[in-house]
Design a protein that fits this description.
With 237 residues, the protein is α+β, with helices and mostly antiparallel strands. The protein has ten helices and four strands, in the order αβαβαβααβααααα. The protein has two domains: 109 residues, Beta Polymerase, domain 2; 119 residues.
């Protein structure tokens, strides 16, 4: 992992030159929850300018990174990051809290993330991803693909669960398992399906030992219960 990151940083420094202000690693690779089979190396590049010429200079290095089966890094100017902080509150709260500077100055330590749209973003993202999950269930066959769907979506939902707790003025959970368990307590819903999928993701359980369709039903029911509870609590707040 570190070798890949070092190569990327050196390539981008060479391509962008003085336009590159910082390269930031964030997400599970920083928290210790990284699992090579299911996790990505998430990167943010801060640049002085993001015009066509600046992006073209970065294109070969970003293409190389994509060939390493990693997501294309986010690119922001520092001014863009400040101006969009309220719109991307979920993402930037997480990046501020869990990041590692690979190159440049830690601009994130001075970034203020306004919370005026935070609750609205949580509600919208919960509903959007719940509906997206149901749509995908309807379009893929039973069995292994349903398990892959749950493995692919659990990180998104646990992020939203963590932010649900933050919006309710609760301490931010450090780990995904803690976020699932605490939001289960909040909603009174059974987290068993989520915890089972998390065990598989963390290689604590063999996927062959579970009933995928039963787990999927519990997984979907939990998402629905938490989403409905969030709607109610945010409406009452």
């Amino acid at each position: 992992m570190d070798d890949k990151l070092d190569q990327f940083v050196e390539r981008v420094k060479s391509a962008a030159k003085e336009n590159l202000k910082a390269v930031v690693l964030f997400g599970s690779a920083v928290t210790g929850e990284f699992h090579a089979k299911h996790s990505d190396l998430n990167l943010l590049c801060l640049v002085g300018a993001a015009n066509t010429g600046a992006l073209e200079a970065l294109r070969p290095e970003f293409s190389w990174w994509a060939k390493q089966t990693q997501p294309v890094p986010l690119v922001f100017t520092i001014d863009e990051l400040r101006r969009s902080a309220d719109i991307f509150a979920i993402e930037l709260i997480d990046i501020k809290a869990r990041h590692r500077i690979l190159y440049g100055e830690d601009f994130l330590s001075r970034l203020t993330v306004p919370l005026r749209l935070h609750r609205h973003q949580i509600e919208r993202e919960l509903h959007t991803n719940w509906l997206r999950l149901r749509q995908r269930i309807l379009t893929i066959p039973n069995g292994p693909q349903h398990l892959e769907l749950m493995l692919a979506s659990i990180s998104t939902f646990t992020t939203l669960f963590r932010h649900t707790l933050i919006a309710m003025n609760e301490p931010a959970p450090e780990r995904n398992r803690e976020a699932i368990e605490r939001v289960a307590h909040l909603s009174g819903a059974d987290p068993g399906g989520f915890l089972e999928v998390l065990d598989i993701r963390e290689e604590k359980k063999n996927a062959k030992t579970i009933d995928v369709e039963a787990t999927l039903q519990r997984f979907l029911t939990f998402v629905e219960a938490v989403t409905n509870e969030v709607d109610q609590k945010f409406a009452d707040a």
